[in-house]
Write a structure and sequence with these properties.
two-stranded antiparallel ribbon
């Protein structure tokens, strides 16, 4: 009903008007994930078009990485009490996740700030040396190292 039949819609859009399917079920609503959800397909991206040169979707080569701002927030903006609350909330919520997800996410916290990642690792009972090793990897290598059955 009111849906494509030849090409099922594969995105993370949820809760739309007149949605009558399983609405994504219990699957994650984000990409990348390690649960087999839809992935972007470069073959169906918008083609380049001429402006004053060619324009296309490309990675943004900004010198900031995803971790600098989070680290500054943790170190310089938050108070000790704020940091304690943050760590407590993360440990409480991440504690119910699969261990491979805990490892992967804690390595990301470690990349933002060593103390941040260490405190989360200790709160979850994870090996800090393993977290440091994972933090030194690329995102793809970290996902492979923590894949189910790895």
């Amino acid at each position: 009903m009111n849906a494509p039949k030849n090409a099922p819609e594969t995105s993370y859009q949820r809760d739309g008007f007149m949605r009558f399917d399983e609405n994504g079920g219990g699957g994650p609503n984000y990409w990348p994930n390690s649960f087999g959800g839809p992935e972007p397909d470069p073959a169906v991206s918008e083609p380049p078009f001429e402006v004053s040169d060619l324009a296309a979707r490309t990675p943004y080569p900004h010198p900031n990485d995803d971790f600098q701002q989070a680290g500054v927030l943790y170190r310089k903006v938050m108070t000790d009490e704020d940091r304690d609350h943050l760590i407590g909330n993360i440990v409480d919520h991440l504690g119910g996740a699969q261990k491979r997800i805990q490892l992967r996410q804690t390595a990301i916290f470690y990349k933002a700030d060593l103390e941040y990642g260490t405190r989360v690792a200790e709160g979850l009972g994870l090996d800090v040396k393993e977290i440091k090793r994972l933090a030194e990897m690329s995102q793809d290598d970290r996902a492979k190292a923590t894949a189910e059955g790895a």
